[in-house]
Request: fold
Amino acid sequence: MRTAFFVFIFISNFLIAQQTDSTVSYYSSLLQEENIKQHLSILASDKFEGRETGTRGQKLAAEYIAAQFKKVGLSPYKDSSFFQSFYIKERRATQKGLFKRKYVKLPTENVIAYLPGTDLKEEFIVISAHYDHLGIIDGEIYNGADDDGSGTSALIEMARVFVQAKANGNGPRRSVIFIAFAGEEKGLLGSAHYAKNPVFNLSQTVCDLNMDMIARVDKHYENDTSKYIYLIGADKLSTELHEISEANNKACCNFSIDYRYNDPKDINRFYYRSDHYNFAKKGVPVIFYFRGIHNDYHEPEDDIEKINFTTIKSVSQLVFYTAWEIANKEQRLRVDVNKK
Reply:
């Protein structure tokens, strides 16, 4: 009888795992390149004037993202607003000349949406990207299609599919928070503000999966046909997160994962240069999904015509798979407290 009982448990767990794999595979397949392209064609258009934090173009982008979150059926993080407002300081020349400057306070906002979980809804998975860019410099618009219109468009599309899964009775056990950060290009200011003023308890935040520049090819792969992705940070606080990431890549996407920028000796210090880092500083495990620096980085030529939408979809699927497992696993991620 004892043997039969353990056989029954093994078979039951196996069938549950098979069903879970089938479910995430199905919903991942619903991520659509055309939807991503539609979002990016708007976010990276001249109408949005390069989305510099504190400008009219950035406000237009924030309103667009909030409207898309509302359209797909996400809840505002608080009351009826998707906006977490804050101020940035910038130095401006006075009328008396360039050598006399003063600081001005510019209002801006992160855009935050909430998908409540089921039995573990008081624990949170954050999926993030920054939506700001450089604005207009010397009369030229820096549209930032890859940096980071690509990650922001993927964020909106993943939100749509997570909501659809919930509507079909397959909602996540843990709550999923979708955040589009402002102020990244000014020094990670939006995520820094969130980390100091968290909308959802950081002690209950299981991880942050952050996307930045996920649609182009960098110098290391420009003559290589590899389907690659740089992953940064997964093992810094949680070896389990690294293992989950590796397993989900094999299950869904088969990227050639390049960890060169995860090296603590990396002179580029990319681990410290996007919004995930402000979560990591608070002890929240993170993964940074990144395709590297290309020739149009922080140049006006970073336009939609050079975007690979198939790549954005593939990265979105990897993030989706990883978020799905973390949101639905029995125990929350283990944090290896001795790892720095």
In short: Residues 2-28 form the longest helix (27 residues). The chain has nine helices and eleven strands. The radius of gyration is 20 Å. The mean pLDDT is 92.
